[in-house]
Every structure is written in structure tokens, then in C-alpha cells.
Amino acid sequence: MSSPSERLADLLIVGAGILGLSAAIQAANAGLRVIIFERNVSPVGATRRNFGMIGTSTLTHPSGIWRQYALESRKFYQEIQAETNISFQQRDGLYLANTDEEWQVLQEFANISPDHAIPSQLLSNEHLAEDYQYLDADRLKGGLLLSEDYSVEPGQIGHSLLNVARAHHNIRVLTQSCVTQVKSAENHVSLKLADGQYFSAKKMLITHGDVTDILYPDVLKQAGLKRCTLQMAKTLPFHQSLNASLYSGLSIRRYPAFEICPSFNTLTKAQVPEIVDAYGIHILIKQTADGGLIIGDSHEYHSLDEPPQFHQRETLNRFILDYCHDQLGIKLPAIQERWNGYYLTHPTELVFVAEPDPNIHIISTIAGKGMTTGPGFMINFIKNSIL
């Protein structure tokens, strides 16, 4: 692959989601000349279609390397936020327990978390009634407040980081640029855009999210990757500030940090409605800057041979709304919009990393925790595989 229009750089990055953008910024800070390609005007995949909850405390196991990635991601956001507003701010995470099993795990976590430098505070239902009056505390056993969690605006973070990349003297950003072909040669890599332009560099990083039909589709399918579909919605503005991002008792069963609790296995074996296990439902509520509440979500897994799931299941929507009302006591405003989110997941690994050709790297499937851990993971990948 060659052309008179070929341009030389140190690193080409395909995909301007959170992985691609954080990789570009950190590689450029290390002195590399970077060109990043985004086929849309701005990121519209998982970087846009998520809750914007940075669950530093619980989305990773406290003693694992991913905990370190979460802390490094937090530092990445903080340093940029100090220079320009990307909507990154501290916001407590509040886990709410309805059952004795959920409450037992929260109590155990509050006792153990100081050993892992995770600040937490156990709240009685009386405390919940006083400080979170929008909840019906009589339906709750208690709560756990986590003060090292953060928040971003999902509609802003991708666009803001794209502007940060544009302003960097070592980064060239090309949006509305669809990469259709890549190739590895003896001492460089190259790519071709749909408009016929060619670019080359020393190395290439592909972070194209759930778009798998153009570059190396066979590699992704042979690895057993699946596409996860999540149902989400947003309400009209709520009448008061939540003062926290809310996690239900169903979320306690799902997040790795709670595995350190002796009663965690008992909780996971406790009976839940069949629809919860069948569709991976756990309830999250996040308030956006305009006062609306993002609520969800569910998880359905499909082969990459199947097209993305465009419809929503109304039974899941109904269950989520009923849970908010019946278990938490929140009187939700009317729904103003619904959407599906998508990400790839690996059957056994927390991330999929491949080098299908020399110096061409694919990174994908940081499933459900990309905003929380992605930048930190990319810091280490850039150091070990790119520099």
C-alpha cells in the first residue's frame, strides 16, 4: 500500500473513543507524533452512550491491577480538568440495600475497605431518610457511601477530549475519516481512508469499539468476542439534586470489589426475579447537568455474526421503572428518551489485546468499565508496547 499522498507519523490511532483519545493524548505527551482517525463527527459509541459514572471504588477488584488502572485514570482526568473543563467532578457513589443479604455485604465492605484505601461510610436507613429525602428509606436496610467516585457528562466528555487532542501540537485529528484498509510492512504501517488518502507511521493502534465489520473481523470472531447491548433511558429534570450516583442492591452482585466480602457468595446465590439473571439487569441512576436522570441498565450478549440490536424490550424497561418505584421509592419524572449502548466483551479476559500484524495493535472489550479504567490501562500499554 503506497501513494504520493502518504504522510509519516509515529502512531496512527483508529477510533476516537475514550481508549483512542486517552492513548493519543498520553502518547503525544511522551513526544510521539500522533494522527487519530474517527469515522464520525465526534465519538458516538460507548464513550457517548453510557452513564458517565466513574466507579473508582467498586468496578475493579481492590487488590488487582485494574484498581491501579482506575486510580491512574482518575489522575488522567484530574490533570486535564485542571486545565480545561471536561465535566470531570467528584460525586459520591451510594449503594442501596433492600435485602438482608445485600445489607450484610455492605456492612462487611465498610469494615474491609480501609485495608484497601477505599473510603466508605455505612449509612442507616434513618440517615438515608434525613439526607436523601427523595428515597423511601422504609423500604431500605441501609446504604454505603463511597467518596472517591467521580462523574462526567456522557454527552460532553468525548467532545471535550477531542478538543484537547486537537489543541495538542503533537496530535492531528481527522474526523469523518473512515479507515477501510490497513497494512504492515517491514518498518512501518499504513492505512487507507474511504476517500483514497493514505497515511503511514511506525505503529498503529485500533480502538474502534463495537465496529467490527471492516478491520480484522475474523480476528475478533475467532477470539470469541460478543457484542453486549444495554438498554438505557433519561428522564425529564428531577425536582432536586440527588447529591450522589445511585447503585441498587442488584449492582452489589455485579461489581468485583464486593468479592472481598465473606457473604458475597451467599448474596449471589440469593433468589432474584428471573428477568434479572436472564438479562443482566442492575439498576443505576445518574443525574446529568440539566437535572435529568439516566436510568438503566440491562445486558444482552450476541455473536458478532448478528447485527446490532436496535430494538428495546419493553419488559425490561418496565421492570427497571417498577424497581425504582417499588424498591427505592423514587418518583421518577417522565422518560424523555431511550437508547441502546454497545460494547464488546471477551469470554474470559477483561480486555482483548491482539497484534494481528507486526506493529498493528487492537485493543477492545474493557467491558462496562472503559470510562473508569481505560485511560489508566492505555498509560501502561503505551509505555510497554508503543514507546
Commentary on this structure:
Pfam families: DAO. Belongs to the DadA oxidoreductase family. It is a single chain. Helix content is 29%, strand content 27%. It has 387 residues and is α+β, with helices and mostly antiparallel strands. It has 2 domains: 8-47 and 156-221 and 349-386, FAD/NAD(P)-binding domain, CATH 3.50.50.60; 92-148 and 226-345, D-Amino Acid Oxidase, Chain A, domain 2 (2-Layer Sandwich). The strands form 3 sheets. Strands 5, 6, 7, 13, 14, 15, 16, 17 and 18 form a 9-stranded mixed beta sheet that branches. Strands 1, 2, 9, 10, 11, 12, 19 and 20 form an 8-stranded mixed beta sheet that branches. The chain has a 3-stranded antiparallel beta sheet with strand order 3-8-4, covered by helices on one side. Helix 2 packs across helix 11. The radius of gyration is 21 Å and the shape is globular. It starts with 7 loop residues before the first strand and ends with a helix. 48% of the residues are buried.
Give a short overview.
This is TIGR03364 family FAD-dependent oxidoreductase. By secondary structure, this protein is of the alpha+beta class.
CATH topology of the largest domain: D-Amino Acid Oxidase, Chain A, domain 2
Q: How far apart are the first and last residues' alpha carbons, in Å?
A: 25 Å
Q: Which parts are unreliable, with pLDDT below 50 for 5 consecutive residues or more? A: none
Specify the structural class.
alpha+beta
Q: What is the overall pLDDT average?
A: 93
Main beta sheet, described? 9 strands, mixed
How many strands appear in the DSSP assignment? 20
Q: So how many helices?
A: 11
Which CATH architecture of the largest domain would you pick?
2-Layer Sandwich
Q: Roughly what fraction of the amino acids lie in strands?
A: 25-35%
Helix content: 25-40%
> How large, in whole angstroms, is the Cα Rg?
21 Å
Domains (count) = 2
Protein name: TIGR03364 family FAD-dependent oxidoreductase
Domain FAD dependent oxidoreductase: 10-376
GO molecular function: oxidoreductase activity
InterPro entries: FAD-dep_OxRdtase (IPR006076), FAD-dependent_OxRdtase_HpnW (IPR017741), FAD/NAD-bd_sf (IPR036188)
